[in-house]
Amino acid sequence: MKYIMLVYMNQEAFSALPKEEQTRIHQECGTWHDELVATGRSTGAIGLHPPATATSLRQQNGRIVVSDGPFAETKEVLGGLERLECKDLDEALAIAKRFPTLRAGCTVEIRPEVSGPGECEAWDAARPNG
Amino acid sequence: MGTASADSQDTGVLYRREYGRMLASLIRTCQDFTLAEDALHEAFAAALVQWPAKGHPPNPVAWLMTTARHKAIDQIRRRALAETKLAEMVALATPEENAPAPLDTLRLIFTCCHPALGPDVQVALTLRTVCGLTTEEIARALLVPVPTMAQRLVRAKTKIKVAGIPYEVPDEEEFPARLHAVLAVIYLVFNEGYSASAGTELMRTGLCDEAIRLARDLVSLLPSCREPRALLALMLLTHARRAARTSDAGELILLEHQDRSLWDRAHIAEGSALVQHVFREGPPDVYALQAAIAALHAGSPSSQETDWTQIAALYGVLLSLQSSPVVELNRAVAIAMSEGPERGLALMDHIDLPGYHLLPAARADLLRRLGRFGEAASAYQEALALVKTEPERQFLQRRLAEMRENSRRSPAP
Predict the structure, then answer these.
(1) Do residue B164 and residue A1 have CB atoms under 8 angstroms apart?
(2) Which residues contact B213 (CB under 8 A, 6 or more apart)?
(3) Is the pLDDT of residue B80 over 80?
(4) In what order do the strands lie in the sheet with A42-47?
(5) Which of A90, A111, A122 lies closest to B166 in CB terms?
(6) Residues of chain B contacting A112 with CB distance shorter than 8 Å
(7) Which residues, in sequence order, are CB contacts of A118 under 8 Å at separation 6+?
(8) Chain centroid to CA A62: how far?
(9) Which chain A residue has its CA at the smallest distance from B167's CA?
């Protein structure tokens, strides 16, 4: 199964760490990822710049409005993704548990990837209070 | 006529006893919760029609398993998914042992209690699939509207499929944590039955029986694990008091005033033996400690003769494993019983349990024992503002009236 692992960084917690620890975590993330690629468990990773560099778009009164950054100031922000290829959720969870940045207070979320256009209907059925 | 209804009764018994096990096996072969459920229901429906007409098959479980497997194949054909589901069709068509395998039940329990599902969902799904309760029964037992429960179950099954929650017993590394989650679900089912969180009845014993049955299954599936045995002991020893906990009018009777001759001796004997074994095998976990406390109560002829010192000590150990204000409260009550109400009150002053009616209720009881009726009355009022079940409310109301009567007769100095 294909899973996307979303990494939500806790910027405060991460920047509070000593510089050497930050570097060490970065290096360990690299090793963690390389191993997954070597064993065929990862088919790619994407790292993102912090939200301060972001530009947002949304439709307002029928017009697309462009603005700086995300509107909501949240403590946790999307930092990157890893695309996993696993037997089942337990395998994905075992991989995610070893993700080094967890010790810097990040949150990791695992979601199954939509495999075809038909599966997009799932979004309709998944209304929280539907 | 008589035979027909006897037949459907037999089928009902079979359903209650074997449903979970059969479903577990079918899910493994077809790797699809919903398909397995539908097929098994169709097989039972077929049995209700065919058995009264043609007589019972020699091995009803094997008959149901075979029929369910054929129904599943039919369903896959109907869905025109034959090509993509070829592997499952082959698995279903392959003749195999028609007796459900115990390992499948274990797999099913671990899947239903997977941490990727919310606690409410874990409870509902376990009752639905492992215990074979209907959606309506679960909705009634957990005081949730039927459509809400139906939707919760559908979503759970969708998540299992879409998120790829495996149908497996977790590996060694994950096993202890996952077993703990399974035990937590079983205990949640039990507690929901034992001290219903809302409603007019104090207990919904059906849920307690299901929880005990689940624990028994787990004990036989995992004979070398101590934790399921400790939980089973705890539930047996607690449930032993069920007949003595409420009056004929449905009012709550406290442990102190219970008619101990109503306690279930068979449950107590079984539970106490389990606790002793578990304690001999190594350091006790939270369930074993609570079971040991329950065993001390169960073995004592009255509240006065109970070994409260030992109980307070066990609560102390429990606190070191599981820091919780509820455990602190229980320890304070035990200390009040062994060392006097003042000691208990002093400890309760430091317990922070907002919104929990048993803290003011316990304080009220100690104040009552000390003859401080005015203070007791206001503590009972505090508890009444928080209480949720009707029998407990009636009990507190009665005590409050007594306190008011007492303080009228002997006004506080």
Answers:
(1) yes
(2) B131
(3) no
(4) A42-47, A76-85, A2-10, A107-112
(5) A90
(6) 162-164
(7) none
(8) 31
(9) A88
Q: Which of residues 26-85 of A touch B (CB under 8 A)?
A: none
| ipTM score of complex | 0.83
For A89, the closest of B116, B158, B173 (CB atoms) is: B116
Backbone phi, psi, residue B178, to 5° = -70, -35
Mutation target among A6, A84, A87, A90 for the B interface, most CBs of B within 10 A = A90
A90/B174 touch (CB, cutoff 8 Å), yes or no? yes
- One-letter amino acid at B212 equals I
Residue position matching structure tokens 């299992």: B160
Contacts of B302 (CB under 8 A, 6+ apart): B260
For chain B, say whether A92 makes contact (Cβ under 8 Å).
Answer: yes
Per the CB < 8 Å rule, is A94 touching B174?
Answer: yes
Q: Is the dihedral of CA B247, B252, B257, B259 positive or negative?
A: positive
CA separation for the pair B64, B108 (Å, rounded): 19
Q: Express each pLDDT in B130-184 by its tens digit.
A: 888 889 888 887 778 999 999 999 999 989 988 999 988 898 888 988 999 999 9
Q: How far apart are CA B68 and CA B70, in angstroms?
A: 5
Query: CA-to-CA distance for B110 and B103, rounded, in angstroms?
Result: 11
Cβ-Cβ contacts under 8 Å for A63 (sequence gap 6 or more): none
A residues 108..127 contacting B (CB < 8 A) = 110-112, 122, 125-126
The predicted-structure confidence for B185-212, as pLDDT tens digits, reads as follows 999 889 888 865 555 555 566 889 989 9
Chain A residues close to B168, C-beta within 8 Å: 88, 90
- The answer to whether B160 touches B37, Cβ cutoff 8 Å, is no
Cα(B69)–Cα(B75) distance, rounded to whole angstroms?
10
Taking CA atoms, B307 is separated from A7, A119, B265, B266, B280, in Å, by 53, 62, 19, 22, 20
CA-CA-CA-CA dihedral for B306, B307, B312, B315, to nearest 10: -80
B254-288 tens-digit pLDDT:
888 899 999 999 999 999 999 999 999 999 999 99
Half-sphere exposure of A15 (CA within 13 A, CB side): 6
Sign of CA dihedral B137, B140, B142, B146: positive
Query: What percent of chain A is helix, strand and coil (3-state, nearest 5)?
Result: 40, 35, 30
Give the H/E segment covering residue B213: helix B205-221
Look at residue B17 in the predicted model and tell me its pLDDT: 84
Pair B46, B56: CB distance under 8 Å: no
The average pLDDT across B348-365 equals 92
User: For B277-314, b where at least 16 C-beta lie within 10 A, e where not — what string?
Assistant: ebbeeeebbbbbbbbbbbbbbbeeeeeeebbbeebbbb
